[in-house]
Amino acid sequence: MKINNFNKRAVSKISLLLATVIVAASCNKPLPDAMPIIYAGANASTVSLGSVINSDTTYSIYKAAATRVGALAMLSDSTKVFTIFLPNNAAFRASGIASEVVIGLLPITSVGGIVQYSIIPGEQFLSTDTTLTRFPNLQLPTALTIGVLPGTTVPLKMTIFPSKRSNGFWANNIPVVAPDLKFQNGVIHLVGAVVAPPAQTLKGDLYSNPNLTFFKAAIARADSGASGLNKLDSLLGYGVTNMTVLAPNDAAFQTLLFGLIYTSLKQGPDSNYAAQIAQALSATPAVFSNPALYSVITPAMVKGILAYHFLATIARGDTSFKPNIRVFSNNFATTPGVFYTTLVNSSVPPLLQPGVMAQATFTGPFVSSLQFKGAGTFPPGGAPYSGAAANALVNPATGLLDHPGVNGNYFVIDKVLLPQ
Known about the structure:
Order of helices and strands: HHHHEHHHEEEEEEEHHHEHHHEEEEEE
Distance between the termini: 43 Å
């Protein structure tokens, strides 16, 4: 795919999330002392990565950023090796950074985050490396340090997630448009937009999203009586993990809650006014903390529903599923009928259920549609997975479907998925 064609299509939607680097525990690993794989430079190149960035005018914005934070000299060192997911000028412009002048006006922490997050030190990865085909992606430490392991001097590195599928090669959810440009001391993969480092944990991002106020209230109700990492709230704020969360928006929760409350009221003395009362009660997130509804909206029921929205896997020899999988929109299958297990799959054998069904649809280089189906229907009684699909909604900050965080990724969906 040619870069010009790429930029004429979906890239223009992207506006860069200018992340301020945070100092916190995260899912990232310290940089390993790996033995680098040395590939021959393109056409027996003796040109270093730093030299090509310095001399090629199509990289002038990246050059300005790398120079500002002192990274250009590092990339010119022929005794070291690197992999760079490099945005050229067109990719920077697609991401909302129009020129070198803008780089000079940004906070230096943001510029440093952009540059350091694009660099994998100590190793070279080509698009043909088989590790890139594992599901959902490969996790690699970048040059971006965000702190140290508690009680040690070992640095914590923000990690990036390359992946390779039949529909392309990716860094997180950003397509690589020209892979495997090999030079003296490393390899460049040109990306179609800036791969921005995440700035918040999932908890911080989810709780500040104005369309997820019911989701936040549901978490509080589900956590009633729980403590520590048994609380979903604590899990969302736990930096040392990878998670994927499907977060129903406010309208989705209102629809479900109206149905639950209406069904309950139809069986009581207020049956003639059930619809009006249910409409009023389900209109605000306070519905979850209304004592009159505690028997209808129990913590166990809410936690069971929410657990169905956390993707999870199980290790060989283990007996429980854990929320340890970070899936981007481009990692989901494009074929129908593919299942992804969740925290509801709490033990094996037997497998309690297949999980949620998901399917991605691409338009050009990006996922334009991502749908999820749950096993349950409301009212109960429908065939499993026969209900209407939940659609992932566009992140207005990026024009894409993903909401990347330090400890995972989440999708806002327009329907509550039911496990049964």
